[in-house]
Design goal:
- The protein is α/β, with parallel strands linked by helices.
- It has 2 domains: 265 residues, Aldehyde Dehydrogenase, Chain A, domain 1, CATH 3.40.605.10; 177 residues, 3-Layer(aba) Sandwich (Aldehyde Dehydrogenase, Chain A, domain 2).
- The protein has 15 helices and 25 strands.
- A 7-stranded mixed beta sheet has the order 15-18-19-14-13-21-22, with helices on both faces. Strands 10-9-8-11-12-24 form a 6-stranded mixed beta sheet, sandwiched between helices. It has a 3-stranded mixed beta sheet with strand order 1-5-4, with no helix packed on it.
- Strand 2 and strand 3 form a beta hairpin.
- Helix 2 runs antiparallel to helix 4.
């Protein structure tokens, strides 16, 4: 605990700023206050946006090698401070320490990928002489930074989901303002501390914890050219409606499903499904929430899932053996426990779990859940999954698609034709074969359809969103010189 300081400043125009008004950060397992962070007001946010706007020309003028050097510095410093960053995650997010170390590894990967891609921003030559009128004309295009960006990051991956916004912005030369989640601001502030060590132009970044009520400028200010938000659908779509002319990228979660077909290697599937449903207490946008199992193996899969789920160790996230830690707040555990109770009251069968102590909710499996129950239709965002069975693959595809969400889906099958069918027919942003929908690598195009969002994350794809194409047309000298 000694690495956690009693107070953290926010970062305004590259510099640390402390103010009297502060935000309390709690240990999510004990509920005790562990530190405080300076809280930005509307004037500070306005200042940050103005500074980013002023910094845009200097950021755009950075050479590729200069952008790469900044990202490489971050990678080196993250490695040096990896143990500290993991402990911060463990405390502020309640993330089991092994998961916390994994997120730090992904933070490093994301910045490393951005470093590599920062020197690969390509354009293209284009043939324009497609008709007589275009004879003598040549075309080419390049990508240029879109300008000041607004980022709002969530509580569940406080480091890596902030990194998926910050690192691409640095790679292309966009200044930014970031609002980290109020419950988990520490990781983002340490990123700010490390960025402040670099030679970024003044005003290139501001990292500003603030109340939701005071954050309106992150969405509405017309000086900002892009808004990237990760969080709940209700908030995300409301932000888009109020964002004005700026480009908007939304990653909004879902109720991810996995199909387990009759030819599946059951032991492997059970191992991966338990992980996908319950790692970091199910608080992931692509956590396994709906488990669809072929009727011929349903009973066996169900019984093995229950046994493995009951064996999960819950408790203090600092302990190496802990797999299930607390949810982000007791109020969230109460909410999800009430959803479980509602499903049982409507006829669902509780296979295991369901108990709650404070912010700790037991890993829970249900079957025979009515399709209209909240644990089926909404995003649980906690350690709860529901089982159902199917008789043919098309029935399973239809069941996955019977959702307002569409982020990722998993398919366990050895039939290549069913793999092709799943890729063609599943209404999701990504199909994961031979594994759970919870799988993600940080260079892949990640995002959803329907209520799950708009646009794609993944470093290269975010870089595209943070740039605009600028065309050049050259007419040949009419004198032929």
């Amino acid at each position: 605990m000694s690495v956690i300081r009693p107070r953290y400043p926010y970062y305004l125009a590259n510099r640390p700023v402390d103010v009297e008004k502060s935000l309390v950060v709690t240990d999510k397992y004990s509920g005790e206050e562990v530190t405080r962070v300076a809280l930005a007001d509307a004037a500070a946010i306005d200042h940050g946006i103005a500074a980013a706007t002023a910094a845009a020309p200097a950021m755009a003028a950075l050479a590729a090698y200069e952008r790469q050097a900044i990202l490489d510095h971050c990678v080196a410093r993250f490695r040096e401070r990896a143990d500290e960053l993991a402990l911060l995650l463990c405390v502020e997010a309640g993330k089991p320490i092994r998961d916390a170390r994994g997120e730090v590894t992904r933070l490093i990967d994301t910045f490393r990928i951005a470093s590599e891609e920062s020197v690969r921003m390509h354009g293209a030559l284009q043939a324009l002489d497609i008709s007589p009128r275009a004879r003598g004309y040549r075309g080419m295009w390049k990508r240029v930074p879109i300008g000041p960006c607004s980022f709002i990051s969530p509580f569940n991956f406080p480091l890596n989901l902030a990194a998926h916004k910050i690192a691409p912005a640095l790679a292309v030369g966009c200044p930014f303002v970031l609002k980290p989640a109020s419950r988990t601001p520490l990781g983002a502030l340490v990123i700010g501390e490390i960025l402040a060590e670099t030679d970024l132009p003044e005003g290139a970044f501001s990292i500003l914890p603030c109340s939701r009520d005071g954050a309106d400028l992150f969405t509405t200010d017309e000086r900002l050219k892009l808004l990237s938000f990760t969080g709940s659908p209700d908030v995300g779509w409301d932000l888009k409606a109020r964002a004005g002319k700026k480009k908007v990228v939304l990653e909004l979660g879902g109720n991810a499903a996995v199909i387990v077909d009759h030819d599946t290697q059951i032991d492997d599937a059970v191992e991966r499904i338990v992980f996908g449903a319950f790692y970091q207490s199910g608080q992931s946008c692509i956590s396994v929430q709906r488990i669809l199992v072929h009727s011929s193996i349903y009973a066996e899969v169900r019984d093995r899932l229950v046994a493995k789920t009951r064996a999960l160790v819950a408790g203090d996230p600092r302990e190496e053996s802990t797999f299930i830690g607390p949810m982000i707040a007791e109020s969230e555990a109460i909410r999800l426990a009430s959803w479980v109770e509602e499903a049982v009251a409507a006829g669902a069968r509780l296979l295991c779990g369901g108990g709650r102590r404070g912010a700790m909710l037991e890993a829970t499996l249900l079957e025979d859940v009515p399709s209209e129950a909240l644990v089926c239709t909404e995003e649980a965002f906690g350690p709860v999954a529901v089982l159902s069975e199917f008789d043919d693959f098309e029935q399973a595809i239809a069941a996955v698609n019977d959702s307002k969400f569409g982020l990722q889906a998993g398919v366990f099958t050895r039939d290549f034709y069913k793999v092709q069918r799943a890729w063609d027919a599943l209404e999701v942003g990504g199909v994961v074969v031979g594994d759970v929908p919870s799988y993600r690598v940080d260079n892949m195009p990640y995002g959803g359809v329907k209520d799950s969002g708009l646009g794609r994350e993944g470093v290269v794809f975010a870089m595209e969103d943070m740039t605009e194409i600028r065309n050049l047309v050259i007419r040949a000298d009419p004198a032929g010189r």
